[in-house]
Amino acid sequence: MSDITADQAARTGTEPPAGSPANSPASPPLRFLPTPAERGRVRLRTLCNLRWLAIGGQSAALFVVYLGFNYRLPITPCAVLIGISAALNVALTLRYPPSHRLINRDATVYLAFDVLQLAALLYLTGGIANPFALMFLAPVVIAATTLNLSNTLILGGLALASVSLISVMHDPLPWAQNEAIALPLLYQAGIWASLVIGIGFTSVYAWRIASESARMSAGLAATQLALAREHRLAALGALATAAAHELGTPLGTIAVVARELERTLPEGSPEADDVRLLRAQAERCRAILARLANPEEAMLGTSRLPLGALLDDIAAPYRGEDIDIFIEVQNRTDAQPQVWRAPELLHGLGNIIENAADFARTRVRVQAQIDAQTLRIEIEDDGPGFAPEIFEALGEPYITSRPGNHALGDSDLGPGELGQHEGMGLGFFIAKTLLEQTGGRVQAVNLDGHGARVSVAWPRGAIDGEAPPAGPRGTAED
């Protein structure tokens, strides 16, 4: 689990970015979901509508009691308090758009105003002996269902303090002329106790229900996200299988034509080297497609190797005349770990090393660090690093910093540049997803102006245990 729980994520509007790359000096600060100080859960228009209902009810009760029952009450101060509430509503409606959302602090201030306005009205009309003292529950319950625990406690404390204050300090309860009503002190204490218990119980109950609902919603959202990622990976697998069947014949034709061209061209010419490279890459594509079309056979070849030997085996196809790949293993334990040659591990690390070799100027460094708790692999290159405009979305499909695709017959690559290729932005996404299935956590950073680093960390036993990694596993971001 991440440091932010599902309950906190749903109640505050934040969500930790799963597997997102860290900030680096060469990239802009990452921007995730808005924080609680930027966006809240309740709309201002909702609170304004509820306040209009309260204003309507207060006005109706005031004039029915004053004009209908002819009870004596301070009509002018009460009307002023109701008018202040209405003026606030009008000002907020004119100041903010209908979709404006309140942060927790502002929502607490607005609800606190409602509590104090109600307390002032009840002070003028009999205190807690007034039957409408029950309305203290409304702002506190609204806070419990929309705000976090600390702000709910603030509203609850303010409501309890107001109830306690107007229970001992208030004007007489309005009544008919020439009549008087005096409630026994014990009965007033009972009213006070019922209000206190009611505010406390209903606020706690509402907060717990809202908390459980938010937790379930966050869990559902996380599950849907995980399922969506698995579906995307499954779709890519189906696409790869179809491509293996559909592209086999064209690649075979390309290899045959390239072999014939290689025989007709003078030995040592640039064109002959390019044709030889073309034939080698076509054969490599056919081998990759064959493995994709027969994943069961790839699984049968799973075995264990020392970590250094495994990394050397993965990096071997990407070594070239102009790129050096250095492999270093730092083992802080007594035993050399034996790592499973799981297809997810081979494809994931191979894709990252290939990307590093494509963008590196002269070298790629692959460093493994092993201790009692963690097995970490870092892949660094001395290239330009990740482009700032794609750094935030790194790890999502179709995100790439390679140049745009060239139209058929319109390539601007020279005879010696046929080894360079454009990508679709799926490589890092596939690598990250596959490595996470083995229990790893992938992070990427830009170095100080001289390349990029991708690190993958596993808890010990995830890829070097007694059993091979099997299927999608929980990762550090689940």
State the separation between the terminal residues, measured CA to CA: 5 Å
Bulk shape: elongated
CATH class of the domain at 303-478: Alpha Beta
Mean pLDDT: 76
Q: Major sheet: order of its strands?
A: 4-6-7-9-8
The CATH homology group name of the domain at 303-478: Histidine kinase-like ATPase, C-terminal domain
Low-confidence stretches: 1-39, 404-424, 472-478
Which structural class best describes the helix and strand composition? Answer: alpha+beta
The percentage helix is 40-55%
How many helical stretches? 13
**What CATH architecture label of the domain at 303-478 applies?**
2-Layer Sandwich
Major sheet details: 5 strands, mixed
Give a count of the beta strands, DSSP E runs of length 2 or more: 9
User: Would you tell me which CATH topology of the domain at 303-478 applies?
Assistant: Heat Shock Protein 90
**How much of the residues is beta strand, in percent?**
5-15%
